[in-house]
Design brief:
This protein has about 575 residues and is of the alpha/beta class. It has 2 domains: about 240 residues, 4-Layer Sandwich (Nitrilase/N-carbamoyl-D-aminoacid amidohydrolase); about 210 residues, 3-Layer(aba) Sandwich (Rossmann fold). Helix 2 runs parallel beside helix 3 and helix 6 crosses helix 7. The termini are far apart. Keywords: ATP-binding, Ligase, NAD, Nucleotide-binding. Its EC number is 6.3.5.1. Catalyzes the ATP-dependent amidation of deamido-NAD to form NAD. Uses L-glutamine as a nitrogen source.
């Protein structure tokens, strides 16, 4: 490649890939495969995502010296690959240096590591806790020179705050900014990222390429959707969301252009790149839940999953997600009827399993429940029947599912929604049993919306069938735990549209009781829901992890004390 060509045209591949935390050898192999793919597409440079070799977020793995050494060895080996004359690489890895342990990237070309850059602005809010394990870079570092082009490489949070890193890089002579990211999903996050980058483009006058990780990591979903904003503040390219891909983008130097702030004599324009459509609302949420379940099961080595299929909406959508994520042959659905299980529920559960094509077993729980009740007769003598006896049904079901899990190595999918988990409408060691919950961060009305959406759409990458997979009768009937005669959820809870709005005010928006009541809600109902939310904290601490969909999920984002006497008196 001639120097003139290198200076005027730059083909940058963005590797939007799905690493696994701790699988350093596997992540290196994935990076090598992506670089080979990019080379076949004619790329000059491959941009990987934040901490790619480690997987993101590595959390306290960073405190293990052996892990840091493995990551650095992988970085050195990958840098050595560039001696073949193919594309240079920018890839994320933790690095331990005299100044501390840093969230870093290495820049390599020609078989050598030519530069390292360290993250300066460490996030310590919401799902992020990087100050626990990393030290900020000791100083602002300038651009790197890649084949005659000066590249600025801020890392993720470095462009999210107001610390002026992009502007400083522009003033130091950078011509393009390449940003490796590990930005998790919530609904509408793509627009948020676009606005963050546009704000920085206005400040620095340079095009910015935003490469984002893909894949599920415990509760977090990284949705990809990598993109670039040109110096003219328009979308230069947009990669797909929820899909692993390597895209080569072509950038040309426009010698008539100038940086907006007059800091560069030339400007770079993207002349070729993808322009993918980003899914919205229900589709995006459903695909996030599907990706999260698939990666949790596969990355943790489970061959298949099992869930209790009750004939209700929550277990039905979880069954649909499991079949879409893993395939019908990897789901076993189990109906566990008792004396209060209606004929409708038996029929609806069977219809749902048949529509999805999964294995369906019926395991009655009459004998184990009656056995528990008989065993406790003397101890409970003189007391009234109530929630204790109801919960024995749920706990018998949970025990059966865990027995199937132990016997066949299947992970139990737990099926409680965010509305129930918020107010404690769930049974510890019963319906809360399980390894992962794909709808843990979906309120009940969102569950209904996603179910209706799935009945008329098949998301890309889904392994399940088209058509109605959640029988309409499940969607239309009043929800019930069926633990006593003629029971419905609304016997114990406000109507779900009311409950969900109050909960969103309390959880996502941290609103006060007076403020919520001013929206038209009954004050006594708001106060009761707030009380239920607080006293259920001990249950949530023992709940299975689940996909983060909202801006504030239980666990990573919202950390309240279990012992807590505060109530908002207004």
């Amino acid at each position: 490649m001639t120097n003139n060509t290198a200076s005027d045209i730059l083909r940058i591949a963005v590797a939007q890939l799905n690493p696994t935390v701790g699988d350093v050898a596997g992540n290196l192999a994935k990076a090598r495969e992506a670089r080979a793919d990019a080379a076949r597409q004619g790329a000059d440079l491959v941009l990987f995502t934040e901490l790619f070799l480690a997987g993101y977020p590595p959390e306290d793995l960073v405190l293990k010296p052996a892990f840091l050494k493995a990551c650095e060895r992988a970085a050195q080996d990958f840098a050595g690959d560039t001696a073949d004359g193919g594309p240079g690489v920018i890839i994320g890895t933790p690095l331990k240096r005299k100044s501390g342990t840093h969230n870093s990237i290495i820049f390599a070309d020609g078989g050598k590591i030519l530069a390292e850059r360290y993250k300066l602005d460490l996030p310590n809010y919401g799902e992020f806790d990087e100050k626990r394990v990393f030290q900020a870079g000791p100083e602002m570092q300038g651009p790197v020179n890649f084949r005659g082009v000066r590249l600025g490489i801020p890392i993720c949070e470095d462009i999210w705050g107001d610390v002026g890193i992009c502007e400083t890089l522009a003033e130091s002579g950078a011509e393009i900014l390449l940003v490796p990211n590990g930005s998790p999903y919530y609904r509408g996050k793509v627009d948020v990222r676009h606005q963050v980058v546009i704000r920085q483009v206005i400040e620095c006058g340079l095009p910015i390429i935003y490469a984002n990780q893909l894949g599920g990591q415990d509760e977090l979903i990284f949705d990809g959707a990598s993109f670039a904003i040109g110096a003219d503040k328009t979308l230069a390219f947009q990669m797909s969301q929820f899909e692993e891909t390597v895209n080569v983008t072509t950038w040309k130097r426009n010698r008539a252009a100038g940086g907006q702030n007059g800091n560069n004599s030339d400007g770079w324009v993207c002349s070729e790149g993808p322009m993918s459509k980003i899914p919205e609302k229900e589709e995006a949420d459903y695909r996030a839940c599907m990706l999260g379940l698939r990666d949790y099961v596969n990355k943790n080595g489970f061959k298949n999953v099992v869930l209790g299929l009750s004939g209700g909406i929550d277990s039905a959508i979880c069954a649909a997600l499991a079949v879409d994520a893993l395939g019908e042959e990897r789901l076993r659905a189990v109906m566990m009827p008792y004396r209060y299980t209606s004929k409708d529920s038996l029929r609806d559960a069977e219809d749902c399993a048949r529509a999805l094509g999964c294995r369906y077993d019926i395991v009655p729980i009459f004998e184990p429940v009656e056995g528990f009740l008989h065993t406790l007769t003397q101890l409970f003598e003189g007391t009234r029947e109530g929630i204790t006896e109801e919960n024995l049904q749920s706990r018998a079901r949970g025990t059966i599912l865990m027995a199937i899990s132990n016997k066949f190595g299947s992970m139990v999918v737990t099926t409680g929604n965010k509305s129930e988990m918020s107010v404690g409408y769930a049974t510890l060691y019963g319906d809360m049993n399980g390894g992962f919950n794909p709808i843990k961060d979906l309120y009940k009305m969102q569950v209904y919306a996603l179910s209706r959406w799935r009945n008329t759409h098949v998301p890309p990458g889904a392994l399940g069938p088209s058509g109605e997979v959640i029988p309409n009768n499940i969607i239309d009937k009043a929800p019930s735990a069926e633990l006593r005669e003629n029971q419905t959820d609304q016997d114990s809870l406000p109507p779900y549209p009311v409950l969900d709005d109050i909960l969103e005010c309390l959880v996502e928006n941290e609103m006060g009781v007076d403020e919520i009541a001013a929206r038209g809600h009954d004050r006594a109902t708001v106060t009761r829901v707030e009380h239920l939310l607080y006293i259920a904290e001990y249950k949530r601490r023992q709940a299975a992890p689940g996909v983060k969909i909202t801006k504030k999920n239980f666990g990573r984002d919202r950390r309240y004390p279990i012992t807590n006497r505060f109530r908002d008196g207004g």
